[in-house]
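Hello,

I think I submitted the calcium ion job twice by accident. Can you confirm which output corresponds to this input? Input:
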Amino acid sequence: MHEIADFAEQLAREAGDLIKHEREHNPLRTDYKDQTELVTHADLMADKLITDAIRERYPDHRILSEESRPDKSQAADLDSPLWIIDPIDGTVNYAYGQHQVAVSIAYAEGGHVQVGVVHAPFVGETFRAVRGEGATLNGRSIQHSGATKPRDSLFATGFPYTKDKLAPLIKRLEVMIHHCRDLRRVGSAALDICWVACGRLDAYYESVSPWDFAAGRLIALEAGASAGHFTEVPGGKPADLWGQDLLISAPGIYDELRSLLKSAS
Ligand code: IPD
Ligand code: CA
Ligand code: CA
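Support: Only one job matched these inputs. Its output is below.
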């Protein structure tokens, strides 16, 4: 697994250098996916860099990458190793020149994520975990915040690009904001989760796609955080890759937050 983790980190750093260089030296080129979702030329370039390199080195492995016409049903196919990639998590931040942007790369076998790397090139931070071996930020071991009370907890969440299903999310937000210290909307799910892993946040919840959370979730678990769902994971779906109604937090507040979110769902 170390070889895989080193390779994932090398790719995340190369893609990170590419997107940073593009943003700092070239005009921003943007487009829209499905009419609403912003995508930049750098997303596509980074996607190609990472997926070409994986295909060359591991031709038998499957790839689920946000910008390579992803087929999410791949996450339920447990037969061969799967790479799960978000070439830029935080594209809106990237377009606005904000620095909370990450390259996220996870590697799974049998539906279990074994390696996760989340690299934030603008701030020079690399989060990394190998299952069973702890989590690091720039090579130093990290731990969750140790929060014990929702009232003293800082949480993050996010909202989808489409505006048609916002009502239930606003209901959850209302409950959370009443019971917790405050909210941060960081704009990158991968970083939200890594920030729970290193104690900059106490909790994170959202419904996202596998590439948004697969690497971060392993990093958070390896940093001692709790991770699960506040609604049921359908039978036969690997929980490691199921992004609906995710909750990741310091263990001391997990059960209470889960009940709050359940009550609002
Ligand atoms: C988005 C970010 C955001 C989350 C959205 C994601 P993208 O990913 O992670 O924080 O709220 O649901 O789609 O589009 O920047 O890769
Ligand atoms: Ca994303
Ligand atoms: Ca993305």
